[in-house]
Structures are given as C-alpha cells and as structure tokens.
Write a structure and sequence with these properties.
With 839 residues, this protein is α/β, with parallel strands linked by helices. It has 20 helices and 35 strands. The strands form 10 sheets. Strands 25, 27, 29, 31, 34 and 35 form a 6-stranded mixed beta sheet that branches. Helix 4 runs parallel beside helix 13.
C-alpha cells in the first residue's frame, strides 16, 4: 500500500469514529444529534446544547383572525447562522397546539416541547446553505382550514373554532459534520376571534360556528406615561435657575421616534377625531401619568444642564439638547389629555411599602396626594381622584394602610394580589376574579379585602383612615404579556414562578402576538359565574414602540367591533360597590425581592424631618421671589426618588447605587442649607463700655428665603443676657442685633452663641465671643462707697467746727490773702506780726 493510500485509509477511519461519536452525542463540538439540538427557545425546558441557527419571528399578518379575514395568514421570520460552521438544507415548517383552555396556558403552552404541537405543516425550503453569520428571511402562507385544492406550498392548521392557538415555527438543517436536526424554534400565540367562511375559489371546510354566545367583556385599559427619575438630587428650587439632569436620554425619548413620543403618537391615532377608529374606544382608555415625568419635561422646556458623567453629580455639566422636543411633546399631551380620562401615578413610581417604612406623613402626602394636583396643573385637566396605582401591581399591609390613611378609596392590584380568607373587615376590592381560578357561584365584581392594622408611625398623626379601600384588580396573564412587549421587557413580580422565563429569548413580534392572544382570551372563553370584566395594565415604563402600541389598541378595537368587548370607563370600574365576601392581601416574595431595601427608610425619614423643620422656620414674604415651599419641595421630591421602584427589576444593584447617590446628595445639601444661617464671629475681644452695655451681634442668612431664628446664648454666671425672642433674617442678607447684657465681672468672659429655628433646631455653627467689661464689679463699688463715706466725714467735721466758731485744725498755718477794700489803712500785703517775730 502506498503512503497516500495509507493516509486515505486513516482519514476514513477517523471519519467513521467521528460519525459514531456524533451519533452517540459525545462528539465534542463535532456534530449535533437531534436530541442535543433541542432548542431552549421560549422555554422548552430542554438542556441547552450547541446553537447553530437562530430563528426569530418578524411578523404575523393579520395579527388576529376574524370572520371577515382572508382564510390565510402570513408568517414572516429570519433564520440566522449563529454557529461556527455552515448549515445545509435549511427548511421551515409551522406547527399548532391545542387551543389554550386556561389563562395560565397563555404562558405554559409556550414552554411545551414541540411534540405537543401536533398539527404539522409541510417543510418549506429556506436556503441550501447558511454560512456562519449569514441570515435569510422567509415567508410562509398558512391556511386556517384544510381544503381539497390548497397549493402544495400552503400548510393548513385545521382551525375550525375561535380561540387562542399556540403556534411553533420549526427550523431544521444539517450542520457540517452532523446530521439533519431541529436547530431552533419560535413560539407565539394566534388569536382567532372568528373563523372565515368558505372561500368560493377554494373548496374549504364548512363555515365556522357562530361567534361566542356570551355578553361582551367590559374592558378598561390604562395607558401609562412614565420614566425613571432624571433630575439630579440636592438641587433646591431657585427663581430662575436651570434644571440639572443626570443624562439627556429623556430628550431622545421625547423626540420623534423616541419611546414616549411613540406611545403618545399611538394614543393620538385613537383619540383624534380623524383617526378612523370608533370614538367609543376612547371610553375604555385612561391615561396614567407620572407627575415626576411631567415636572422634568416642564423643566426641560427651558434651558437646562446635563451632567457630563451621570456618576459624578458634582462634576462638569453641559447644555441639554431637548428643549424643543420637550415643548412639542408637552403641547401634544396638553391637547390630548382634556379629551379623555386621566389618572395620576404615584410620584416617581415610589414603593408604597418603603414609603410607609419611612414614616413621614408629609413625604407620603407629596408622593401620593400631590400627584393629582400636579397633573391637573400641568395638563389643565381634572384627573380621577382617590386611586392609587402601585408600580409593582401588588402591595403589602403597610402600603395598603398608607393608601387608606391618605384618603384613597381604590388601589389597582394584580388579581393574585388578593386571596380569599376568613377575615372580613376594613378593606374592600372591586375585583375581576383571578383568571383560571374556579369561580365561586355568583361571585360579584366587588369583594372585601382583609383587615389591615396600622403600624406605628413617626411624626405627625396622619388623617383618619376611611372605612374601606377598594382594589380594582387586573388580569395578571394579560399584564405579564403586555409587559413583555417592546424593548427591555421585565417580568412583573406578580407573575407566578411556574411560568416565569426569560422573555428576551423570543423576538419582539412573538411577544406582541402573545400579548394580543392574552388580551383576547377572556373574551373568547366565557365561564359560568365569572364576571365578563377585564382591566388591562401595561407596565408603567412601557417599552412598546408606535407600531406595537398601535397594534395593541387595534386589538382592543377589533374586540369591540366583533362584539367580544365593550368599552368601560375607568371611573365606572372604581365606582363599583363592595360585597361582604372577604379577601386577604397576598404580597408575593418576588415583590419583596424587588422592593426598595429597608436600610433606606431611616435615612430618608431623618432628612424628611429636617426638611419639615426648616420649612417651619422659613418665611413667605410677599416681595420675595421664591416661596419656602418652592425652595424645599424639590429636595423632598429627591427623597421620594430614593424610594423609587424604577429599574429595580432590571438592575437592582444599579438602582441601589443611584438611590444611595440621591440620598447622599440630598443630605449634603441639607447640611449646607442649615449651615447657611449663622452668627458672624466678631474679631478679637469684645469690650463693653459699661457693665450694662448691649452686646452687638451680626447674623447672616445666605438662603434665598427669609427665616425666623432665635439666639441661643449659654451665658456664664457673671452675666445676665436678655432673650430677645424670635427674630427674622432677610433673604440673602445680614442683620445686626443689640442683645441687652449685664456683666458683673471685669475678667474676660467666653460666651457661646448660636442660632436656632423657632423650634430649637440648630442653625449654622456656634461661635464663642470673648467679652471684657470696663466695670470693676464689687471692688469698684466698695471703693466708691468708702470714698463717699470719707468725704461725708470730712465735710461734717468742717461744718462742726464752723458752727462752733472754731478754726478748723486743718486750716492751721494757712493765711488767706486779705480781700481788697477791707484794709482802710492801706496796709495791703503787710506781713503778719507773729510771722515777723518768728523770723
């Protein structure tokens, strides 16, 4: 045998061994047997193996089938080679599973293995070969029902009745060094609202059965407009200052093609008179707006600044670029809102449980009650009052108690956030029973929730709670599917564990189809004793684009036109009366895991108290440009943003970092504000002109708002300093004060002096004043008294001698000059005879 022949024989043996290993599934990265190539897809539950192809759904046309539709629909998608080797003979087929019979099946059927999709179409070729990185688009035309003259390239799914059907696209191919295998799949839901009739051009099956024999579902949908907090913390209000934002991403979101622009555009397509849609559809919609978003957008309509680095709040800034976009978006919203229902979301998607733990009534009032007034003011509307819509869709006992104590009569919760129980007390719920649960005979739309006890709260006593708190509940299956639409889709905390999976494994088109199916399921599956009622709630930071949002609205419109749904105003939903049936709150562990960590509660409470104390000391002067409320409210808003649930489900670590940064910035600012009101230290020793001279002091207020202060003087025992009471310092100014002071010691005395608010809260830094008096105290008084006594004694002695006609001995030896005119002999200046004799 030649050397070349030996090499060929050796290569043949290696190839045979590799083939055997591949067949056994133990060939390392060589070939992929069918079992090892089972795709994980949207949750098939199979172990992940080598991936060669990625199949994604691009569109379904039409997105929902009605009796008036064509008997065909078109499925388009893309196959991409994501492996490291070519794949030959790429082909696609469509498969169908049984119609979803329970609401949980809207999720669970998307996790079933492909064998459960037992109605199979024919494979259709996509590409002879796909090299690594190459992609190929395809389009399948699918008939709903079989017929005798269907073309060979059209598969039939044998759908003969309305329902929500799970479909699967199956892609097969032969990777290099391997055999033919199923390499990936894509699953999605197809809502069939009615089956099209017989097409005379094609001999199809007999016409479909009539439409659903049940009353239409009373349907309400919230349309959220919210965004994560953007304003930099620690910026108090100013008369003409510029807003400072962490980044300029909101400008892109408001501009044409941005997320918020597209959500508003989709809504305009329904509400505007020339939209072509049924105007009754507007009655089913209620605009849910985050006031924090409106405040930020309003600030952006003027010149504003943006941090150069979002992680450096004290760093350099640059000019924002979104003023024009903010003006245009806000004007559009102001034109749209008056024509429809509007309700305020809690400020900055605050966590009600964390807000309750903070225990500050004023902070809670700003977060829960003020939003309605803010929305009314900024949009010139009258919003729906008394409704709390927590971002998590669920609330614990403390959060529910907080809502009740702040005057709310209704809270919007997931239908699995309340469960039946034996307790029958204070809280009630206007409720659509959990979809899929065994309904109780005659269960009404409104039931009682459990009694909730009031936890101890710090600060002022909150207003008394109302007797009941209603809970309007929404369908968790539709809400979960709606949350999966768009970019960065979250899995809500109320989604049950058994049907949780990574939704980003599915394409956006597939997730949209799943949402349309979930919206239609209740209408297509009436159950005895189950109210025909639905509340649809997308997540507050919804990532749907214009086409996706318009498709959702189109699905709602389609349900109405086909007699499966009827618009129900949000106000009618929350106006339902409670029933004595009892229910308890059920706070899922996922919601607790996504909640704001407990260690933020106490620092937030402390800073909220400091804001309240400073607010009580500030003075609202008519001539003053800035009111105390306008000055300090932005800092209170910063504390609410610390407790925000925004982005916590996507990136908890980043959310904690942002919350701590906001708290640190607010604390730092409050320290600076308290330090801006102080006593100016006098230089050197302060000398009093007398023991009762006043002490002259100068107080400075660097705040742009006037403030009431008191002097706190720790006078030593040797002094008596009069308390001059409450005084007012002008904004951005100094004021001199004369403090009546009495000092009984001539020594240098050190007197500590500080400023406080009227309630005794320290302001600024205390100073020590060295005081010296010119008085000598008791010694001077004794000396003065002795001198006076001696003077009186000497005067009395002289007067005694004069009254007796005797010369005072003190006058001996003193001869006063004779007065002129008294000596008649003219002996002026003649020496005394005794003196001459003495000489």
């Amino acid at each position: 045998m030649t050397r070349a022949g030996s090499q060929r024989t050796l290569l043949s043996l290696v190839a045979v061994m590799l083939a055997v290993l591949t067949t056994l599934g133990i060939g390392p990265g060589i070939g992929t047997p069918i079992a090892a190539a089972e795709p994980t897809g949207s949750g098939s539950g199979q172990p992940s193996g080598p991936k060669f192809l990625k199949l994604s759904l691009d569109s379904v046309t039409p997105t929902a089938i009605t009796a008036a539709s064509d008997p065909y629909f078109v499925v388009s998608g893309t196959v991409t080679n994501i492996g490291d080797r070519p794949v030959d003979d790429v082909s696609i087929r469509i498969q169908r599973g049984a119609a979803v019979t329970s609401p949980s099946g809207l999720r669970s059927t998307l996790r079933l293995d492909q064998v459960n999709y037992d109605i199979n179409g024919e494979f259709q070729d996509v590409s002879d070969r796909l090299t690594p990185g190459q992609r190929k688009q395809f389009s399948l035309t699918v008939a709903l029902r079989a017929g005798t003259d269907l073309p060979s390239d059209i598969s039939s799914l044998d759908i003969a009745a309305p329902g929500v059907y799970p479909l699967l696209l199956n892609v097969n191919g032969q990777p290099a060094y391997g055999g033919q295998a199923r390499l990936d799949d894509a699953r999605f839901l197809l809502p069939v609202l009615g089956v099209p009739g017989t097409d005379p051009k094609r001999a199809l099956a007999p016409p479909a059965p009539p439409a659903i024999d049940a009353p239409p579902v009373a349907t309400t949908m919230l349309w959220p407009l919210a965004d994560r907090p953007r304003l930099v913390a620690g910026q108090p209000g100013t008369p003409d200052g510029q807003a400072l934002l962490t980044d300029d991403d909101l400008a892109a979101s408001l501009a044409q093609g941005g997320r918020l622009d597209q959500l508003l555009s989709a809504l305009e397509s329904v509400v505007k008179p020339d939209s072509g849609r049924d105007r009754n559809l507007v009655n089913a919609l209620c605009l849910a707006v985050d006031p924090d978003l409106l405040i930020t957008v309003s600030d952006m309509t003027r010149d504003y600044r943006v941090l150069a680095s979002p992680s450096d709040p004290d760093g350099p800034t640059r000019s924002g670029t979104g003023s024009h976009a903010a003006k245009a978006w806000l004007e559009r919203l102001r034109a749209l809102a008056p024509g429809m229902c509007v309700v305020a979301l809690p400020f900055a998607q605050v966590d009600p449980s964390a807000l309750a733990a903070a225990g500050d009534v004023t902070l809670a009032d700003r977060a829960l009650n003020a939003p309605a007034d803010l929305i009314d003011s900024l949009l010139a509307v009258k919003s729906v009052r008394g409704v709390a819509i927590p971002d998590a869709g669920t609330v614990d006992t403390e959060g529910a108690t907080l809502f009740a104590h702040h005057g709310f009569t209704t809270t919007v919760l997931a239908d699995n956030a309340v469960t039946s129980g034996d307790n029958r007390a204070n809280f009630t719920a206007a409720r659509t029973p959990p979809a899929g649960a065994a309904p109780e005979p005659g269960t009404p739309d409104v039931v009682n929730l459990a009694d909730v006890t009031l936890p101890p709260a710090a600060g002022p006593t909150p207003p008394p709670a109302p007797a009941t708190l209603h809970a309007a509940t929404f369908d968790i299956w539709a809400a979960t599917a709606l949350a999966a639409i768009g970019s960065n889709p979250p899995t809500p905390p109320f989604t049950p564990d058994k049907v949780r999976y990574e939704v980003t494994n599915d394409s956006r088109a597939a997730r949209l189809q799943d949402a349309l199916g979930a919206m239609a399921w209740t209408a297509l599956n009436p159950e005895p004793g189950r109210p025909r009622s639905a509340l649809l709630t997308p997540p507050q930071q919804w990532g749907a684009n214009r086409d996706e949002a318009s498709t959702v609205l189109g699905q709602l419109d389609l349900l109405v036109k086909n007699g499966l749904a009827t618009p129900r105003p949000f106000t009618d939903l929350i106006a339902q009366q409670p029933d004595p049936q009892g229910y308890e709150l059920d706070y899922p562990s996922e919601a607790a895991d996504d909640a704001v960590p407990a260690h933020f509660a106490e620092p937030v409470h402390q800073q909220a108290q400091r804001i309240t104390e400073l607010m009580g000391a500030l003075v609202d002067v008519p001539q003053q440009e800035l009111s105390p409320r306008a000055f300090l409210t932005p800092l209170r808003d910063d504390l609410i943003r610390v407790l925000s649930l925004s982005d916590r489900r996507a990136a908890a670590a980043a959310a904690d970092t942002n919350a701590q940064r906001r708290l640190d910035q607010t604390t730092k600012t409050m320290d600076n504000l308290y330090g801006s009101v102080t006593v100016l230290p006098p230089g050197g020793v302060y000398t009093l002109a007398s023991e009762q001279s006043p002490l002259l002091l100068v107080a400075r207020n660097d705040l742009p708002v006037a403030i009431r202060v008191r002097f706190k003087i720790d006078a030593p025992a040797e002094t008596n300093i009069t308390d001059i009471g409450e005084q007012q310092l002008p904004a951005k100014g100094n004021r001199s004060f004369q403090i009546p002071t009495e000092v009984s010691d001539s020594r240098n005395l050190v007197i500590p002096i500080a400023l406080t608010t009227s309630d005794g809260v320290p302001l600024g830094n205390a100073v020590s004043v060295s005081v010296r008096s010119n008085a000598y105290g008791q010694v001077l008084a004794i000396i003065t008294a002795c001198a006076c006594a001696l003077l009186l004694l000497l005067v009395g002695r002289r007067l005694w001698h004069r009254f007796r006609g005797q010369a005072d001995p003190a006058d001996e030896g003193f001869d006063p000059e004779p007065r002129g005119g008294d000596d008649s002999a003219g002996r002026v200046g003649k020496p005394d005879k005794k003196r001459q004799e003495a000489r």
